[in-house]
Inverse folding.
């Protein structure tokens, strides 16, 4: 789950002068980077996460590209790198870093290092015939990103979620939500909710669709709701391809996309 925050850099007032429009466009796209990647792809290739931790003494590695496009231009990460480790039964350690970019319409592309994410997923209820499995996955966002480009938070942020999952034959459904503690001038604490339905089409290929909602993340901001569809293709027991794409159905119009590879291994 990549999370980037943006505290807007000082801008000149908006006028029809092109030199003033460019900083405004840059700011709009940097804000889009924040809104798109804040909590995005918690359970690759989807935004909604699942409660299942990595198996004990096993590893997961993800390398991915995440993109968003709206009226301000393009933004995202190239790449995001995530590592998960099953430290003890039912408990997973999580580390994520990224290289972020923004490409405002009519302006130059900016690249920079993003914030660093640390987390622990702990499953405290096992799935049974009647009960779903349940886990919590708190994360901390360390402000390690490039501040000069607006790719970093100036505060330590935290996400406190609960996730549930239940399987029925070839069908799996999971979801939940949590609360983002988002300090800083002009920021608001906010909620993220999501739910997903996934089906195993063949032995090596699964597809899923999700809907997720985010409340406003800054003073005067707006909420948004998106629908996202994607798939997971198991090339082997170790290598897996992941992809998804989605669009808003409520809130400012934007399109998101994800493409990545997952590598798994263990004893």
């Amino acid at each position: 789950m990549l999370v980037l925050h943006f505290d807007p850099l000082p801008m000149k007032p908006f006028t029809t002068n092109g030199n003033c429009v460019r900083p405004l466009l840059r700011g709009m796209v940097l804000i889009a980077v924040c809104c798109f990647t804040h909590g995005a792809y918690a359970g690759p290739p989807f935004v909604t996460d699942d409660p299942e931790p990595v198996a004990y003494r096993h590893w997961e590695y993800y390398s991915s590209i995440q993109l968003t496009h709206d009226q301000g231009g393009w933004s995202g990460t190239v790449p995001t790198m995530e590592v998960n480790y099953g430290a003890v039964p039912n408990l997973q350690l999580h580390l994520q870093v990224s290289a972020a970019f923004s490409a405002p319409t009519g302006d130059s592309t900016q690249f920079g290092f993003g914030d660093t994410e640390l987390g622990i997923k702990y499953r405290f209820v096992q799935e049974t015939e009647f009960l779903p499995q349940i886990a919590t996955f708190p994360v901390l966002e360390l402000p390690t990103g490039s501040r000069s480009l607006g790719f970093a938070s100036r505060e330590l942020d935290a996400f406190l979620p609960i996730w549930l999952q239940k399987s029925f034959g070839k069908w799996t459904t999971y979801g939940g939500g949590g609360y983002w503690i988002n300090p800083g001038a002009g920021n608001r604490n906010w909620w993220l909710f999501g739910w997903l339905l996934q089906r195993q089409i063949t032995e090596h290929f699964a597809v899923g669709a999700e809907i997720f909602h985010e409340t406003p993340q800054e003073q005067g901001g707006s909420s948004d709701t998106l629908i996202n569809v994607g798939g997971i293709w198991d090339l082997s027991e170790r290598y897996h391809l992941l992809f998804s794409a989605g669009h808003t159905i409520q809130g400012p119009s934007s399109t998101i996309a994800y493409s990545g590879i997952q590598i798994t291994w263990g004893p």
About this structure: The radius of gyration is 18 Å. Confidence is low (pLDDT under 50) at residues 1-40. The helical segments are 18-37. The chain has one domain: 18-265.
